[in-house]
Design goal:
The protein has about 110 residues and is an all-alpha fold. It contains two helices and no strands. It has a domain of about 45 residues. The N and C termini lie far apart (about 125 Å).
Length: about 110
Amino acid sequence: MWASSALTDGKNLNKKREKKEEEEKEEEKEEEKEEEKEEEKEEEKEEEKEEEKEEEKEEEKEEEKEEGGKEKKGKERKKPWSNGALSVKDQSMLASEPHKPGMPASV
């Protein structure tokens, strides 16, 4: 009798332990699923932020182009020789003109 009751008690304990283990595994799976969902949400938020930043940059570029175009129309274009050097055309004009008193002879 003692032996049979001990066996049934042992079997019952094993079954309870197995059930607990299965429940724990299921809980872990559910937790993993929840974590994955949270990670996906975070990734989506990050992607949205990046997209917004890119859109803002594009808008800024477009605004700069529009403003830049307006400014260029109003302003005179800078000449490459504005740093003090004379253009080829100006140099040829100076070379063909006779020397004037009070002006340097060569440039």
